[in-house]
């Protein structure tokens, strides 16, 4: 199965708006207690999340996984830092790319693949304001073309 396929539970649409995504990696995620049950219910928010590299390990910060309702005392902190599982070569590549100015590691989506929770992270270079406007213009133009083709087929 290609990267990013599976049952998508959460997407970070703002990441594609704010960054030029140059390369993506599929990472496993280390979870605690009832977090997987909450993830399977789709109670995940990646909106303001980011990935950070420290001591040769990659961590996911600010990803909100809501506490499981039936979890009582075994529940977790919703915004805790979670370790991402990647191969050593992938981590080294991330370190090399993020040392360049303007690049950052951004989570794009979380999904279930073969029963495991996965996070698709991307290396992104920040967009300027005029780049964001141009992207919106292209998107609107594509929408107009699709609408015109749909009307023409009727």
From TrEMBL:
GO terms for molecular function: RNA binding. InterPro entries: SmpB, SsrA-bd_prot, SsrA-bd_prot_CS. GO terms for cellular component: cytosol. It holds the Pfam family SmpB. Keywords: Cytoplasm, RNA-binding. Residues 131-154 are annotated as: Disordered. It comes from the Bacteria. GO terms for biological process: trans-translation; trans-translation-dependent protein tagging. It is found in: Cytoplasm. Its main location: cytoplasm. Belongs to the SmpB family. Required for rescue of stalled ribosomes mediated by trans-translation. Binds to transfer-messenger RNA (tmRNA), required for stable association of tmRNA with ribosomes. tmRNA and SmpB together mimic tRNA shape, replacing the anticodon stem-loop with SmpB. tmRNA is encoded by the ssrA gene; the 2 termini fold to resemble tRNA(Ala) and it encodes a 'tag peptide', a short internal open reading frame. During trans-translation Ala-aminoacylated tmRNA acts like a tRNA, entering the A-site of stalled ribosomes, displacing the stalled mRNA. This is SsrA-binding protein. It comes from Jeotgalibacillus salarius.
């Amino acid at each position: 199965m290609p990267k990013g396929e599976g049952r998508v539970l959460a997407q970070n649409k703002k990441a594609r708006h704010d960054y030029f995504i140059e390369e993506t990696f599929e990472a496993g995620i280390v979870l605690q207690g009832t977090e997987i049950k909450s993830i399977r219910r789709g109670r995940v928010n990646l909106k303001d999340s980011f990935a950070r590299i420290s001591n040769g390990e990659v961590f996911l910060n600010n990803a909100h996984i809501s506490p499981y309702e039936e979890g009582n005392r075994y529940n977790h902190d919703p915004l805790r830092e979670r370790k991402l599982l990647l191969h050593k070569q992938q981590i080294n590549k991330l370190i090399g790319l993020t040392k360049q100015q303007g690049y950052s590691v951004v989570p794009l989506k979380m999904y279930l693949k073969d029963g495991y929770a996965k996070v698709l992270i991307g290396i992104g270079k920040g967009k300027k304001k005029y780049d964001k406007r141009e992207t919106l213009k292209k998107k609107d133009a594509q929408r107009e073309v699709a609408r015109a083709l749909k009307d023409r087929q009727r």
